[in-house]
Every structure is written in C-alpha cells, then in structure tokens.
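Retro notes (design track)

What went well: tokenization of the new backbones is finally stable.
What didn't: we kept losing track of which sequence belonged to which structure.
Fix going forward: every design gets posted as structure first, then sequence, in one message. First example under the new rule, 339 residues:
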C-alpha cells in the first residue's frame, strides 16, 4: 500500500504510462471511458486522494494532488477529467459540517472508489442563478440547469450546488440517474468526448431532506480563490508532460518547470497571478502539442495518431474551467487583445 507522497505520485506515473496512455487513442474514439480505467485508479486508492488517512483516504495536500493530476493527465486526459469530478464529492463528504448520516454512508465507499461522484455546480456560476433549490415539504425542489456535467453514466452520485433561500448555496447529493423532472442532453465534444459530458435540466426535481450536505452564504469570490483554480492547471501541465516525453529533451522541459512554479507561486499572490499562470499553462499546452505535430510530420493528421489527439485536447484546455480573468489573459497572450 502506498504510504508517502513520492509513492503515490510514482503509482500515478505508472498508471499513466502502463494503463492510461496505451489506451488513450482507443478511448478517444469511444462514447464512454472503459470502467477498467477507473477500477485501476480505485485499486491504487486515488479516489480518496485528498481525504485524511484517518478517514480512509491518502491524505494528499493540494501540492501532492496537483502532482498526481499532472501524471494521470499525461496518460489520458478524458479519464483524468472524469476522475477529478469525484474530488468535489469526496471532500464534501469528508467535511466537518456534513451530516454524519451522509458521511457514514458514503465516505468510505467513495474513498475506495466503490461509489464514484460527479458535480453539478449551476448555482455557483456568476450572475443570475442558473440552478435554484427551494424548500419543498421535508426536502428540496431543484429548478434550472447545470451545464457541463461530466461522467454521466460513469458515476453513482451527483453533488449539486444550487442557489437557495437568502442567496445561499445549498449542497445536495443525488443519485446520478434518470429521475422525474431531470432532462439529460449529451454534449458531443471535439476532445475528451468519452468523458460523457451532459447538460442537465431540472424541472421540479425533488430531493429528500436527508440528502442535504450543507448550506452556506453564496460568495462569488469563492470561485476565484487561487487554491480552487490551481488544480485545473495541472491538466494542461500533464498534456505538456506527455508532449515533452514524446518530443525528447529540449527547451519545453524548462518551460514546463517554469509554468508549474508560476502556478504554485500564484497560490500566495492572488487571483490575478493565478489567472496569468493558468493562461500560461494553457498556451504552453497548445505550443507543445503543435510542436509534437510538426515533429511527427504529415502522419499527425491521421486519426490514429496521438499528435492530433493532443492538439484537440490542448484546444479543450483553452476553455475548460476558465474565468473572465483567465480568458482575457489568454487572449492577450494569443495576440487577440492588447496587453
């Protein structure tokens, strides 16, 4: 059993190189990621990565979690993308304020990957609430939508964050399955399509009161916290990592290290610095994938080549998990707006 951060990262690297990357081209053409990929992550204990060891997890801090994400993303971005959604569920279950009935029922199985989670965060998005939760009898009624819910059909539980009474955020745990009032629309993506990403429409979906994990004031600044934005940057770093391994030693190795440091430094320097760091990571992913395509040559445009897959995935990472500050920083880097 892995015991140290170095052990865990080494296991993640082995899974990326021996399981995920060899299957990445096949996954790229599927409608859903094979369960065996997630089973391998569960067997390594990675579903409980951020949960304290005494609660059944690996006890990884943010830095270690980012290192694991980077390694896994170097193997298969689609698999890592789905697995990352589980982090929201398992951290909610492990939180001190979560009702014991939910924690006792699901935290252990969630850490072991026997129960797998997705997230629907429509209530957290800036602007008018897209998803609302209203009291209904002894429970809650959900109305609105949650765009970009990943892992539908691949996960068991759905952590929903909806805008509640008094401009609060109500966190509810639903079964990730068809139910009255829930409309599921599959999104067809140019990259990571096997992630089974959908749009969910809620029209009077009823949730029992005992499924409420928490309720707190809505704070738009929460979604701008650097520590919340850091881990998604590791997806881009993982793509760069795979590209530089395929390219061989060169200047991009130093750029990757510098980008990683910039992301880590931004944890203490604030949102603006994190926006710049996230933009730098996404731009580097585009350049690294383009460099690989050029090195591979005309074969890069064949559908069975990793180079074209990585180029498409780099495009995906330009817009995934973005915020206006990150978008503007990227547009400046790409020459579309003035600096």
């Amino acid at each position: 059993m892995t015991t140290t951060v170095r052990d865990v990262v080494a296991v993640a690297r082995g899974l990326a190189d021996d399981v995920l990357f060899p299957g990445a081209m096949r996954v790229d053409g599927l409608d859903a990621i094979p369960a065996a990929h997630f089973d391998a992550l569960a067997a390594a204990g990675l579903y409980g990565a951020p949960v304290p060891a005494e609660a059944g997890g690996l006890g990884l801090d943010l830095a270690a979690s980012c290192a694991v994400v980077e390694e896994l993303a170097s193997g298969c971005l689609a698999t890592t993308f789905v697995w990352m959604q589980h982090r929201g569920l398992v951290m909610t279950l492990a939180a001190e304020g979560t009702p014991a009935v939910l924690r006792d029922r699901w935290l252990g199985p969630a850490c072991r990957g026997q129960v797998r989670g997705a997230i629907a965060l429509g209530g957290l998005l800036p602007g008018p609430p897209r998803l609302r939760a209203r009291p209904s009898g002894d429970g809650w009624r959900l109305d609105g939508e949650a765009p970009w819910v990943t892992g539908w059909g691949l996960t068991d539980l759905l952590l929903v964050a909806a805008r509640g009474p008094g401009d609060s955020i109500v966190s509810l745990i639903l079964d990730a399955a068809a139910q009255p009032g829930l409309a599921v629309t599959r999104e067809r993506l140019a990259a990571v399509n096997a992630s089974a990403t959908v749009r969910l429409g809620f029209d009077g979906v009823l949730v029992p009161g005992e499924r409420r994990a928490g309720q707190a004031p809505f704070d738009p600044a929460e979604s701008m916290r650097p520590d919340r934005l850091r881990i998604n940057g590791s997806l881009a770093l993982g793509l760069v990592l795979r590209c530089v391994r395929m390219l061989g030693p060169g200047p991009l190795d130093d750029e990757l290290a510098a980008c990683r440091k910039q992301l880590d430094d931004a944890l203490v320097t604030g949102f603006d610095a994190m926006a710049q760091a996230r933009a730098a990571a996404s731009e580097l992913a585009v350049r690294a994938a383009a460099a690989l395509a050029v090195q591979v040559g005309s074969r890069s445009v064949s559908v069975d080549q990793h180079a074209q897959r990585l180029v498409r995935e780099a495009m995906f990472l330009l817009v995934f998990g973005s915020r206006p500050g990150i978008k503007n920083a990227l547009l400046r880097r790409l020459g579309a707006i003035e600096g």
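Added context from the reviewer: The first helix runs from residue 5 to 28.
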